[in-house]
Amino acid sequence: MGVGIEVTDLNAWYGTNHTLQDINLKIPANQATALIGPSGCGKSTFVRCLNRMHETNPIARVTGTVLIGDLDIYNDAKPVEIRRRVGMVFQRPNPFPTMSIYDNVASGLKLNGYTNHRVLDEIVEKSLKNSALWDEVKDDLKKKSGASLSGGQQQRLCIARALAVDPEVLLMDEPASALDPVSTSKIEDLIFQLKSQYTIVIVTHNMQQAARVAEKTGFFLNGRMVEFDSTHKIFTNPTDKRTEDYITGRFG
Amino acid sequence: MRSKVRAVTDGAVTALAVLATLLVVTPLVAIFVYLIYKGASSLNLAFFTQIPKPVGEAGGGMANAIVGSGVLLGIASLIGVPVGIGGGIYLAEFGRGTKLANAIRFTADVLNGVPSIVMGIAAYSLIVLPQGHFSAFSGGVALGIMMIPTVCRTSEEMLLMVPHAVREAALGLGVPNWRSVLSITVKTASPGIITGCMLAFARVAGETAPLIFTALGNAFWSTSLKEPIAALPLQIYVYAISPYDEWHRLAWAGALVLIALIVIAVSLVRYVTSRGVLKGAS
Question: What is the pTM of this model?
Answer without folding.
Answer: 0.86
